[in-house]
Design a protein that fits this description.
Structural class: mainly beta
Protein name: Glutaconyl-CoA decarboxylase subunit gamma
CATH class of the largest domain: Mainly Beta
Organism: Jeotgalibaca dankookensis
Number of helices: 1
Distance between the termini: 48 Å
Number of strands: 12
CATH superfamily of the largest domain: RNA polymerase II/Efflux pump adaptor protein, barrel-sandwich hybrid domain
InterPro entries: Biotin_BS, Biotin_Carboxyl_Carrier/Decarb, Biotin_lipoyl, Single_hybrid_motif
Keywords: Biotin, Lyase
EC number: 4.1.1.70
Shape: elongated
Length: about 120
């Protein structure tokens, strides 16, 4: 049986349909599910620190940090708009912002380095 609910996210209301499943069906679903990354950005390390890469092509809506700023894992570094959705790019770990390579309004491709910690 499907139930419809309204969910508000960032001031926008979305209608979602949820199907109720029994325990046996849930066990089958959870065994076949592939875990997804909880971080919207990927990061890579090099001799010049941790590069925070764009998870998808889009446009930078805002940059929330400056060079020299201390950040904690999960802090929002910048906001990326893709397919009319705003996505927060977060710090993969604690650190200091070493370099900001993007600015508001700039278009980026998937994998582009946005900043370095």
């Amino acid at each position: 049986m499907m139930k419809t609910y309204e969910v508000e996210v960032n001031g926008k209301v979305y209608a979602v349909k949820i199907k109720e499943v029994d325990e046996a069906s849930f066990d089958n679903l959870s065994q076949s599910a592939t875990p997804s990354s909880s971080s919207p950005a990927s990061a890579s390390t090099s001799g010049s620190g941790i590069a925070v890469n764009s998870p998808m092509p889009g446009k930078i809506v805002s940059v929330k940090v400056t060079v020299g700023q201390q950040v904690n894992a999960g802090d929002t570094l910048c906001v990326l708009e893709a397919m009319k959705m705003e996505n927060e790019v977060v710090a993969p770990e604690d650190g200091t912002v070493r370099e900001v390579l993007v600015s508001e309004g700039q278009s980026v491709d998937s994998g582009d380095v946005l900043l370095r910690l």
